[in-house]
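Q: What does the assembly look like in three dimensions?
Context provided by user:
Components: two
Sequences:
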Amino acid sequence: MGTSAGGVSALSTILQALPEDYSLPVIVVQHRSSDLNTTLEEVLQYKCGIRIKQADEKEFIKAGTVYFAPADYHLLVEKNRSLSLSFDMRVNFSRPSIDILFDTAAEAYGGKLIGIIMTGANGDGADGIRTIYRYGGVTIAQDPDEAQYPTMPQAAIDTSCVRHIFDLGQIVNYLLAVGGKETFTDE
Amino acid sequence: MIDSQELTELLESIRFVYGYDFTEYSEASMKRRIDYFMTGNKIDSIHELGKLILKDDSSFEQFVQDVTVNVTEMFRDPAFYKSIREKMIGRLATYPFIKIWIAGCATGEEVYSMAILLKEEGLLDRSVIYATDINQKALQMAREGVFPIDNMKAYTTNYIKGSGNGSFSDYYIAKYNHVLLDKSLKQNIVFSVHNLAVDKSFNEFQVILCRNVLIYFNQSLQNKVINLFYESLCPFGFLGLGNKESLLFSDKRKKFEEIDRKEKIYMKTV
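A: Here is the predicted structure of the complete assembly.
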């Protein structure tokens, strides 16, 4: 998932709906600056059943966990399904960048990936959506009419690579439908 | 997007031909950097890239320089420098002579930050800082000590947050849109090339800093490098890592004591 301005509220709505034994892993880039001593993960965990944590260097991705990119680092997914950090240049003025997460996740998971772009004020993530689509994954954008900041989901939609335009309620239903019952196997 | 198999073969060839070992770097960011290099040089395939850099030394050098560049700042993560003042300086002051290794120094911002800190603590005169990196172009820039003026405002904020007790502007002169760091800071610094993936230990140090370099290495290489650092530290020597790094993948992790868990400062125990 990728979000920017207005993202915490959107994420809150979605993540609160996911159960503790949710069968898929969730990886999130929420644009965040290093100036704020943010306890984003703690604040969200308070309200959520599913486990919420900041991604740790080379940590293996597990089901039923939400991994957040730390402030001021890019988050990358490795082929062996672990998470790496990088301090390379900003992409779309952003670090962490949604494009980098989505590109590397697509390479690691191929078609077994759902990419979701929600509220935000810049175009980060649009290229990433295109990549996920090309690798056969499912691409979802939050309905720009509902999004607090429509620019980011709209930019994703403009790539013509978004399969579903959903409001938050529909995103929740979709995620529960795909991740509620199937078992996820760590390969 | 680059094919993994082709990439692995290229990196093996590079190791064979030039002795540079990138095979244990974190794959995802290495791929991105190589992709960026190829786009910038209008190279369409790994095959073409291989033909270019395996045959032509200067193309290979350019490739290394572009692919190993690491971004850095002065007094980056000010809390780390604050912790150095509070937790390391006391012990360091007891040594008649202090040797510090800054591994993966890139363009030198961290090196000069350490020099400033030591100067303010009255320890610079009896210290030598060995600053190494794989990237010769970055090292040359580090030697010159010239930095863009645009960055200085942010660095000043970092400096103050890191408990700097002087005036940051005392340490440099501004000229047009660059600043030149003071000569007195350079006297106790030795810059040289060193490849963490391949080279051996070259001295024994009281302090080794290696921040936001290990994140570019896979777990296996991280372990090898921490071993190298362990061997290069004197008893009770300090190791400082980047704030998202750790000794988790090192088989020597029990041989270090946590001095500052948050800022990733460790001490070699015996």
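Follow-up: The first strand of chain A starts at residue 2 and ends at 3.
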